[in-house]
Structures are given as structure tokens and as C-alpha cells.
Write a structure and sequence with these properties.
about 375 residues, alpha+beta, 5-stranded mixed β-sheet, 5-stranded antiparallel β-sheet, 5 helices, 27 strands, elongated
Length: about 375
């Protein structure tokens, strides 16, 4: 007779079980022999499918695509199988290992070894699950391939065209910000296209939020303002109106590095900053200069910093004048001596324009 007074409901044999295990799942416990007849340590799927995007490498998990950064998909297949495997609730001290075998380009055979302890009895199990790799196109790459965009950043400038450096910087700002969003897991963030157009740069992006932030960052870097507008392009399947937005970045009328005549008869200025107001260096004296854009004459720009040429510093005449060689005629010419000129220098940068010849600070 069983000391516990329990009997196996299947075979009728007496069972020696601790009090807490005399009932399992609301029914009298089976003896070990009958229990292990039906016991499965692991429940595994017959096969799994790993769907990946052939363009970006993202993997579809459930209804969503995830960027995984995998160079091959063996680890992805292992993860997918792991998610589908379930271990019996009665097992303890579980350990397991997976041995992948590449059968062909699209099939990985995963042999999964498990061990554990059930009813104080060590038990092992091995299951083999084939994983099928299938390529497709994720939602994001499908939109990119279809030239989808929700908003445009149009980089323009007042009374002029943006400079090459402004164009290059706006391009970099757009790409870097979108890369930040992508790195943070935002799969809705992408640049559809970046193109130089007459008068500036057009950046087409996937969301209005991207366009708004890119526009603000360009203005933070170069000054100016942003004008936004939207137009109705369609309605979705639920009858909701779908709009496309345009953010026009208006850069200031002058840019950093421009050489300008502010129209005050004090000589030209090298622009060092152009945001909400203009800052610069007076070429005749080296003194700091500041002004509002609306105070500049219509044709203020004389050239750019890169237009300056190197020439010989012939002599320092006095506190206010130096003698240099004219880069075109090679004649000794007396010009103003600004504070930024090193009197011991052998050569300096000069800029020749309609108002004459002036020294220019060295490019930093």
C-alpha cells in the first residue's frame, strides 16, 4: 500500500509522491512510467520561414519589419526558432544548444538539443526544425522604390543662389539627421531624393516631421527663415485627406565668406556670420562689423573669400598702409593696413574688385 495513499489513475499502481505533487492540472498524478509515456520536453514547429528584405536586409517579425544588421540569416533563423519553441512547464534546470546546418542557399536545418530535470529525473530531447529563408521587399524599401515622399525641403536664398558650401552643408544636415532617426529605430525615416535645382537644393523626405527638423537645422546653421505650405494630393482608403508639405528655407541675402560692400563708404567687409543679423571684418581696418540685412544695398556682394589671391607683401609703410604687388599687373601698390595683417609676413591674401585692392584675412 502507498504511504501517500495515491494510485496512478491510468495503470492503478501505487505512487509515492510528495503531497504537493499528488495532483497535476487538477487531476490525480500519474506514476512516472505513465507520465513519461506521454511527456514531451519541447514543443517545436515543423518548420519556420524567415522573410527578409532583399534591399535593406530587414527581417519581418509578425506584422512588422525590423532592422537587424545581419550579414547572414543563420542567427536570425535561430532566434526565430527560439521564439517558437516552448519547454514543458514541469521541467527544471533547463539547458539547450542549437546546431545550425546550411542545407542550401535558402534552407538552414536547426538541430536543437535540450536537457532538464522532470520529477527529479534527468531528461533530454532533440528536435530538428528546418528554416526556410525567403526574400521580399519591406514596406520602407517599397516606398523608396516608388519614389514616395511626404514633404520637401527647398533650400533657396534671398536675392542670390545658395553657395556651394551652403548646398553641401544642407545636404549633409539632411542625411545626418535622417541617419540619426534610422539609428534610433525609426523605419519611417528616409530620404527619397536630394537634387540640385535651379536656384538651390530640393530634399524630398518621408515625413513632415523630418522636413520640419531639417529645415530648422539648416536655419540654425546658416540663418534665414522657413515658410511652410501644404497641398492636398489624395485621400486614403478611409477617406482621410493626404497632404504633401513644402518647407522653403530662405537663406540670408549674403553668406559666410562673402566679400561685400555695405554701402557706408568705409570699405568692404568679409562676412564671418550671417544668421538673423550679419557679422564681419572690415578689410580696411580689421575692425568688427555688424548690420541688419535690410540695411545692405541691393548689389552688396563683391565676391567670395575663395576669390582672394596670394601676393607678396613688399613693405610696411606705416600704421595705416602697406605695399603689395598687384596680382594682375605685378606693380607695387599701396593699400590699407588692417590689423589682421602680420607685418613680418612675406605673402598675404588680397582681393581685387571694383572698389580697389584689399587685404583679406587668412582662411581658417
Amino acid at each position: 500500500m502507498s504511504n501517500s495513499g495515491a494510485f496512478c489513475p491510468r495503470c492503478g499502481d501505487a505512487v509515492e509522491l510528495p503531497r504537493e505533487r499528488r495532483m497535476e492540472r487538477g487531476e490525480p498524478s500519474l506514476c512516472d512510467a505513465c507520465y513519461f509515456d506521454d511527456f514531451e520536453l519541447v514543443d517545436a514547429p515543423e518548420r519556420i520561414q524567415v522573410l527578409y528584405c532583399s534591399d535593406c536586409g530587414a527581417v519581418k517579425r509578425g506584422k512588422h519589419w525590423e532592422d537587424v544588421g545581419a550579414k547572414d540569416y543563420t542567427d536570425i533563423a535561430i532566434d526565430a526558432v527560439t521564439e517558437e519553441l516552448t519547454v514543458h512547464v514541469g521541467a527544471e534546470s533547463i539547458s539547450w544548444a542549437v546546431e545550425p546546418e546550411q542545407v542550401d542557399e535558402t534552407t538552414v536545418r536547426l538541430t536543437c538539443h535540450f536537457s532538464g530535470v522532470v520529477r527529479d529525473t534527468p531528461i533530454e530531447a532533440t528536435v530538428v526544425v528546418p528554416a526556410k529563408l525567403a526574400s521580399g521587399t519591406c514596406d520602407r524599401c517599397g516606398l523608396i522604390a516608388g519614389d514616395f515622399y511626404a514633404a520637401t525641403v527647398q533650400v533657396r536664398a534671398a536675392t542670390r543662389n545658395p553657395t556651394d558650401s551652403e548646398i553641401a552643408d544642407a545636404r549633409e544636415i539632411a542625411n545626418e539627421y535622417v541617419a540619426e532617426k534610422e539609428a534610433g529605430g525609426d523605419r519611417d525615416a528616409f530620404v527619397s531624393s536630394i537634387a540640385e535645382v535651379e536656384g538651390g537644393l530640393d530634399v524630398k523626405v518621408s515625413t513632415t516631421q523630418l522636413a520640419r527638423e531639417i529645415s530648422n537645422r539648416i536655419v540654425d546653421a546658416h540663418g534665414g527663415s522657413v515658410d511652410s505650405s501644404e497641398r492636398l494630393i489624395t485621400e486614403d482608403g478611409d477617406g482621410n485627406r493626404v497632404y504633401r508639405t513644402a518647407h522653403v528655407v530662405r537663406l540670408p541675402p549674403v553668406a559666410k565668406g562673402d566679400l561685400i560692400d555695405p554701402g557706408d563708404d568705409e570699405g568692404p567687409v568679409l562676412v564671418t556670420a550671417a544668421h538673423q543679423t550679419l557679422s564681419g571684418i572690415r578689410l580696411t581696418s580689421g575692425e568688427e562689423f555688424g548690420a541688419d540685412f535690410e540695411d545692405l544695398p541691393e548689389r552688396a556682394v563683391l565676391g567670395e573669400r575663395r576669390d582672394a589671391e596670394e601676393t607678396t607683401l613688399v613693405a610696411v609703410e606705416d600704421e595705416h598702409a602697406i605695399q603689395v604687388l598687384d596680382p594682375e599687373t605685378y606693380e607695387a601698390t599701396t593699400i590699407s593696413r588692417p590689423s589682421f595683417v602680420d607685418p613680418d609676413a612675406e605673402t598675404i591674401q588680397v582681393f581685387k574688385h571694383r572698389e580697389g585692392l584689399h587685404a583679406v584675412p587668412a582662411d581658417e
